[in-house]
Amino acid sequence: MKFAWIMAEGNVWDKKKQFITTGLESGMDHIVDFSDVENIRKLGNVKLISDIESADVVLVGRNSEGDGTLIIPDDLSKSKDLAAVKRLKRRDKKVAAYVEILSKKHEELAATLGKEADYLILMGRDWKVIPLENLIAGLQDEKVKIIAAVADYDEAKLALETMEHGTDGILLCPHEISQIKKVAELMEKIQSEDYQLKPATITKVEPVGIGDRVCVDTCSMMQLGEGMLVGSYSQGLFLVHSESMESEYVASRPFRVNAGPVHAYVMTPGNRTKYLSELETGDEVLTVDQNGKSKVAIVGRVKIEKRPLMLVEAEYDEVVLRTLLQNAETIRLVTEDGKPTSVAELKVGDKIMIYLDPNARHFGMAIEETIIEK
Questions:
Q1: I want to staple 303 with a disulfide (CB 3.0 to 4.6 A). Which of 71, 145, 153, 215 is the partner?
Q2: Looking at the whole model, is its pTM more than 0.90?
């Protein structure tokens, strides 16, 4: 998943603090800094990227000769930065290699460091897309995460979309505080995964008895038409609506999805699933709207209680899916016109939205394998 770090070097502390706290409020909790390390640690639970070995990620390559000049040997295997990266990796440190791209030789050094470091931070002055394309292509089989240093929204968008895949992340070095919020909005949009939902026809609705059902309370407010993808079969999940609607029986709880019994799957970021019984406070799940647009939500609490259950069966293109839901008026699925409908009112022939996954799953990960679920 794409990510954003922030660096506010070159500013007095008061201004740097303002940039960093705005970044933290926008979800950027990885801070690159060299001069105010202790002050930054007091701002919150952050990950620090710096040139000191106590940093969460040790940065190699910035001002390597003491005056900002990077001397590159003809034989790149003799690079001091390469030696430093290897030394730190032998000590099980997370390492970020930093290279300012000024020439073809700098690009070649970056490619060499990218084969050893965990992260490769690329800073450019006059370069735009071509060196970035070369490095993304050259390091695509390596484990390194490529990060482009950018100043604003436009540069961030360019870096993250280069060669379709783009960089793995960006290092935002903003000149204006407004750019932090703009880039945060861009990251949220890019991180969103789309799920192509299909209208399946209800073929059976019947009560089945008592079971342990799971309510997932998130740290996010869901809107009308938004819920979670949940189901008994990994090959297909139902869009179960949030409790964002008022009812004559209970007040709305737009942060909650009454998702189903403990055995059911729920979709999580990266097209992975978890059993509902596995979820706990701090985990990430996906909320999905009627158009298949998703957002990441943090689990705040999970409630497991014994409740009467209802079997819901639906079919799309000869694929039959089933799930179990609490038998209650407040539990809803989403119809093909995007409206929530109560399971108490479901009948054979109704159409509700599902997601079909062409892959089987192994420990929650999508794999190419034949599997039968019934």
A1: 215
A2: no
